[in-house]
Amino acid sequence: MKERVVVTGMGAITPIGNSVNDFWQGIKENKIGFAKVTHFDASEYKASLAAEVKDFNAKDYMDPRSARRMELFSQYAIAAAKEAVENAGLDMTKEDPFRVGVSIGSGVGSLQAAEREEKKLLEKGPFRVGPMLVPMMISNMAAGNVSIAFGCKGKCIDIVTACATGTHSIGEAYRSIQYGDADVMLAGGTEGAICPLGMAGFASLTALTASEDPEKASIPFDKDRSGFVMGEGAGVVVLESLSHAQARGAEILAEVVGYGATSDAFHITSPAEDGSGAAMAMMLAVKEAGAKPEDVSYINAHGTSTHHNDLFETRAIKAAFGDAAYRVPVSSTKSMIGHLLGAAGAVEFITCVKSIQDRYIHPTVGLKNPDEECDLNYVPGQGIHGDVTLAISNSLGFGGHNATLAVKKFEA
């Protein structure tokens, strides 16, 4: 029999708060985390706004020597994992370390390390390239560093599916526990790619908004949307088998009940125009949850504020939910924190858990002028207070990757 899987801890580093509580308080205040880029001089860039993490000091989460040997995306992962482990009350001295695993992904790893060392290569020659370039740059180092920091000796994986990374990472951790590969998994996503190469690359794809007004920069499903705001941060959750969580007396925050993963097999950057791939991911997650479309209380949309994503995701929801699509509230967390790339799905999963706990669905902030073709209830204006018993979170990644997680209020 498959194990039931529950959430017992959560940690977040975001553009509107460096803990789950601060992040959620910002969400409830409709706080927008967008401002002019400070990580570098972006005055000549098409996109000059970003959703940067504020007041982050790696030394608050790890010793200075360890911090110096990690790039930003790994530091964010350690910080979020530390909060999640503490929130879960997980004592590794009482665990079999080979039954505790890690599934934390990053979409791009460290572009900053590549920029820095490539400059040395061109200006000073190959022998001046630092020996730590590769171990600091590659995306699996977030998972590796978390494993080392907390002594997790079980399955340790880095899933890279662009903007679906965080959702797939949690989904595969869920599967690992369901089928007995682990008792506990630290799972999520992390990203720190607000740098010249990252901003220039996404801007060249016309994916980033050129708006200089934070109030109008990330406005998913709005007729005037013009692209996403680059974000950064991390989200990590502690998942456990129900039996393990109950045996150690852990507080259970929610239960993961479904996971759907598909590929559009269509285009390297655009979702399938009919939304069929994303629709199937949603249908698989809802089916595994033993639910029907009308049972879903809330959809946390991928909602990037690009023309294609919002339109095609709307079509996907209609295809998956039928008439129920017009009754279920849909909102985009990216309207407040921007697009955290590989970390987006993990932070948005945390949003779903908090929605269940707090009985609150946040609005799509900034949505003023709905696109005629985006005609669902995207929760404009004010949030919705009321029971949230089953929520799903969508992520769609470049390359056609689709992932949906279903999470519900825990019932023994």
Write the topology of this structure.
Blueprint lengths: L4 E9 L6 H9 L6 E2 L12 E2 L13 H5 L3 H17 L11 E6 L5 H14 L8 H5 L3 H10 L5 E2 L7 H14 L5 E8 L4 H9 L9 H4 L15 E9 H6 L6 E10 L12 H13 L9 E3 L6 H15 L8 E2 L2 H4 L6 H15 L1 E2 L22 E2 L4 E8 L3 E8 L4
Parallel strand pairs: 4-5, 4-6, 9-10, 9-13
Antiparallel strand pairs: 1-7, 1-8, 2-3, 6-7, 8-14, 11-12, 13-14
Give a structural overview.
The protein is of the alpha/beta class and 412 residues long. It folds into 2 domains: 5-247, 3-Layer(aba) Sandwich (Peroxisomal Thiolase, Chain A, domain 1), CATH 3.40.47.10; 259-408, Peroxisomal Thiolase, Chain A, domain 1 (3-Layer(aba) Sandwich), CATH 3.40.47. It is 34% helix and 18% strand. It has 14 helices and 14 strands. It has a 10-stranded mixed sheet with strand order 5-4-6-7-1-8-14-13-9-10, with helices on both faces. A hairpin with a 3-residue loop joins β13 (390-397) and β14 (401-408). α3 (72-88) crosses α6, α7 (165-178) packs across α14 (344-358) and α11 (276-288) packs across α12 (307-321). The longest helix is centred in the N-terminal third of the chain and has 17 residues, at 72-88. The chain starts with a strand and ends with a strand.
